[in-house]
Structure formats: structure tokens, C-alpha cells
Design a protein that fits this description.
Keywords: Membrane, Plasmid, Transmembrane, Transmembrane helix. The protein is mainly α. It has helices at 10-18, 35-61, 63-80, 85-103, 106-109, 114-124, 131-138, 145-149, 153-169.
Length: 174
């Protein structure tokens, strides 16, 4: 059998030659079509900018807390070691004072000691400074080194945890 080659129909050929490419519409603009959307976009952008600036101010205002927490991490390690516990406890009391001096005016904080210092910490702490900070500042800080060496391990950890809570949660009025 012979294959027949069919010739295309002349009308079909003419119709195919007369076809043109599909014309694509112009791309839709991403710009708002009315001024109301433009205003809404600007308000949204201003809100985002304001939120970022407020976050940045809060972040910078709490830089002293982040630094105090980094120092406290090292102190906590030394409190767990009986050989370095006494120096670490004395350093912890100094860290609390430096943290308070970074947040409040010097004339309000620098002269505080003993019960006045404990009341200050208690008054500015969320839920109070706690018994362990009062123990540190009232008693342990002024003991001799032999008494600090006799301090139980869990008391050292509790004092460090109370100091961390105060550093992270104390309230500074604007």
C-alpha cells in the first residue's frame, strides 16, 4: 500500500496565514489607582517606622540589663565553685549596685546601703526583691569569708537566681 500524501486544503492554508499572534494586554501597575490607597499605604509605613523606632529605643534602654546578665552568667559559675564563691558573692552585690546606677540617677542610688538598699530593690522589683536578695545584702555581703564558705550551695544558687530576676524584671519609671 502506498501512503498518500495529502495536500492541505487551500482555504485552510489561507486561514492559517491570516492568523496573527495573540496580543498581550499591558501589565497591570502595582501603584495604587486611587489616592486613598496611597494614603493608607503611607499611614501603614509610618506605623511600621514608629514601631521600629519604639523597639529600638526599648532595646537601647535595656542594654545595661543585657550587660548585667552577661556578667551574672560568669558570677553564677563562680558561685557554684566553693573556692571562688566568696569573691563571686561580693561581686554579685556590686553588680546589683552597678545595675541600679545605670537605671536611676546616681544621687538616688549611690548612698543606699543596708536596709535602705534592700527596700529600694524591693520597691522596684516586680513582686518584691525576695528573701534571698535581702539575705545577700543584709547579711552575707558583710560576713567574713569563713562564713560565706559555709553557705550551702543551694543558697548561692538561690541568691544568683534572685539577682537575675531583679535584673531582668525591675521597673524603671520613665
Amino acid at each position: 500500500m502506498e501512503q498518500q500524501t495529502s495536500q492541505p486544503d487551500p482555504m485552510t492554508e489561507a486561514a492559517l496565514r491570516s492568523l496573527h499572534d495573540i496580543s498581550m494586554p499591558t501589565p497591570v501597575s502595582w501603584m495604587p489607582q486611587t489616592w486613598g490607597w496611597m494614603v493608607l499605604g503611607l499611614i501603614f509605613l509610618a506605623g511600621l517606622t514608629l514601631a521600629f523606632l519604639l523597639w529600638l529605643r526599648h532595646y537601647r534602654a535595656n542594654a545595661y540589663r543585657r550587660k548585667a546578665r552577661r556578667i551574672l552568667d560568669g558570677i553564677e559559675i563562680r558561685i557554684r565553685n566553693p573556692e571562688t564563691r566568696q569573691d563571686a558573692i561580693h561581686e554579685l552585690a556590686g553588680l546589683l549596685k552597678r545595675t541600679a546606677l545605670a537605671a536611676w540617677p546616681r544621687d538616688e542610688v549611690a548612698s543606699l546601703s543596708g536596709q535602705a538598699w534592700v527596700r529600694f530593690l524591693d520597691g522596684h522589683a516586680e513582686g518584691g526583691a525576695g528573701h534571698m536578695l535581702a539575705l545577700l545584702l543584709d547579711d552575707v555581703e558583710y560576713r567574713n569569708d569563713a562564713n560565706i564558705d559555709g553557705l550551702p550551695q543551694n543558697d548561692g544558687d538561690d541568691i544568683a537566681a534572685a539577682a537575675r530576676r531583679w535584673i531582668e524584671r525591675h521597673h524603671v519609671s520613665a
